[in-house]
UniProtKB/TrEMBL annotation:
Lineage: Eukaryota, Metazoa, Chordata, Craniata, Vertebrata
Organism expressing this protein natively: Equus caballus
Identification of the protein by name: Ras-related protein rab-18-like protein
GO molecular-function term, one example from the UniProt record: GTP binding
PROSITE patterns in alphabetical order: RAB (PS51419)
Top-level taxon of origin: Eukaryota
Length: 101
């Protein structure tokens, strides 16, 4: 995002995953320190047990709502457009692709 995004009001969130594991590669304090250094939200979660997953989305949405420039009508035509994959084009496993407008 730092390389390609020209906006200064984007919301970044670092999610520390696999909190269900006993031996973690990165501890909570290290993740929090990294997130603070890079002005990111930080939350821990487990995709396996779903702990913290809902909270991560709720926190992200709340922060986006608190940042009017991200959702005001003047920005309606900016962002990412999701479309169905056309034959001959690349795409993810879900059958769609993203194109930046």
């Amino acid at each position: 995002l730092e390389t390609y995004c020209t906006r200064n009001d984007i919301v970044n969130m670092l999610v520390g995953n696999k909190i269900d594991k006993e031996n973690r590669e990165v501890d909570r304090n290290e993740g929090l320190k990294f997130a603070r250094k890079h002005s990111m939200l930080f939350i821990e979660a487990s995709a396996k047990t779903c702990d913290g997953v809902q909270c991560a989305f709720e926190e992200l949405v709340e922060k986006i709502i608190q940042t009017p420039g991200l959702w005001e009508s003047e920005n309606q035509n900016k962002g990412v457009k999701l479309s169905h994959r056309e034959e001959g084009h690349g795409g993810g496993a879900c059958g769609g692709y993203c194109s930046v407008l």
